[in-house]
């Protein structure tokens, strides 16, 4: 059986983000008592507006999962209800889900990757058409970034920078 080790992180190609350059909130920045607009960083997930609802939700959730582990301090503390049952922490700074064409997603990803201080996670359509993760990785490896059709792109970065990147996009309908 051919298993891929999660630890075998490759160096990013020229122009790509350095995975060691972390984007996130420091412990002193997490302010769960303030409105989401007060947070220094903004989080948006942009989904291919042509996808049917189930695939769009899947793409957004998968891109968000990669973002949740990649951005420090994004999730707030757990909440406990009156019965003592724990509810896992959610994004305290909020998350907006927008829609865009496939062409716009590719351009957005390229501009976001080139922007300083912006975390980018994406989900190519190939992730929804393969059932084995190594097959998905092989499809991605055989494609250039411009050849990959994207189902979703997740961005976290300085509010003004992210706003410029997603300017003109509407909420996913």
UniProtKB/TrEMBL annotation:
Segments for region (Disordered): 1-32
Entry-linked InterPro entries: DUF2000, Pep_tRNA_hydro_II_dom_sf
Gene3D superfamilies according to UniProt: Bit1
Domain of life: Bacteria
Protein name, UniProt field: DUF2000 domain-containing protein
Source organism per UniProt: Friedmanniella luteola
């Amino acid at each position: 059986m051919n298993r891929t080790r999660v630890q075998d992180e490759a160096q990013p190609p020229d122009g790509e983000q350095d995975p060691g350059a972390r984007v996130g909130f420091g412990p002193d920045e997490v302010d769960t008592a303030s409105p989401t607009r007060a947070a220094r960083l903004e989080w948006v997930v942009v989904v291919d507006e042509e996808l049917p609802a189930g695939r769009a939700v899947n793409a957004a959730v998968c891109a968000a999962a990669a973002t949740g582990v990649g951005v420090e301090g994004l999730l707030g503390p757990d909440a406990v209800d009156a019965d003592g049952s724990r509810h896992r922490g959610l994004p305290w700074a909020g998350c907006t889900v927008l829609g865009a064409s496939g062409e716009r997603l590719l351009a957005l990803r390229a501009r976001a990757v080139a922007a300083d201080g912006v975390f980018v996670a994406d989900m190519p359509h190939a992730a929804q058409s393969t059932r084995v993760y190594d097959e998905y990785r092989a499809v991605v490896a055989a494609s250039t970034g411009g050849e990959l059709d994207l189902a979703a792109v997740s961005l976290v970065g300085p509010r003004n920078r992210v706003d410029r990147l997603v300017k003109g996009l509407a909420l996913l309908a």
